[in-house]
Each structure stands twice: as C-alpha cells, then as structure tokens.
Amino acid sequence: MPCFSCGARQTDPVRGVSPWKRGVRRETQVLICPDCQRAHDLDLDTCAACGSVALICRLGEVECRSCGAVRLARAGRPASAGNAAGGAAVTGGSGTPGLADEVQAALERVLGRTR
Questions:
Q1: Is the pTM of this model over 0.70?
Q2: What is the pLDDT of residues 6-29, one digit of tens each?
Q3: What are the strands, taking DSSP E only, across the chain?
Q4: What residue spans carry the Low complexity bias annotation (predicted)?
Q5: 96 CB burial (10 A radius; 0-12, 13-18, 19+)
Q6: Are 27 and 60 in contact (CB under 8 A)?
C-alpha cells in the first residue's frame, strides 16, 4: 500500500521499527511515509474520546491506539464528512470496496457462498 498523501511505495524495511505510520482517513486505513509525517495538515480522523490520530481500522471497527476506545464501523459514511465522533465506514469515499468488503467477498468465494 502506498503513502496516501504522496503515493510513495514502502520499501523492504531495515531491521527495527518501520518509520512508516498507520492512520485512518475518511474511515479507511492508510499508510503515511516518513516525509509526509512532517506535514501537519494530513486530515486524519481523530478519536472521539481523546482526540488522538493514532487510529487503526479493522474489519468493522476503528480502534484508538492511545486510549483504547473502539467504535463500530458505519457503512456509507460520505467522504466529505471530516473527522467525526461517530462510527467508521467500511468503504472509502470513492465508492470502491473497503477491506471488510474485500475480505467478505474472498471468504464467500473460498467457502462457495453467494450473496
């Protein structure tokens, strides 16, 4: 996955902790390269409980890595809806399937289920 801001691709990591960071923007998990981390206008979603931008997006939920608050995903949230105290969308603002949709489709293919 490239940096959501500049499109740079992550290279094979050197030993140790990766300098790339994760974040949530418009209810979608994104990666942020070290250069873009210096920008203060990344427009990342924030935690409703503590205001932190240290969020991760999992299947159906968004978790704050700072305070541990978890909120359920909310499908169909418009991309223009900035930072919010509500839930998370499973799809990005462009109408493309989100990770949860992709995983669900893959499971249905593997297990032979139909929608």
A1: no
A2: 988 887 777 888 889 989 988 888
A3: 21-25, 28-32, 55-58, 61-64, 70-72
A4: 79-88
A5: exposed
A6: no
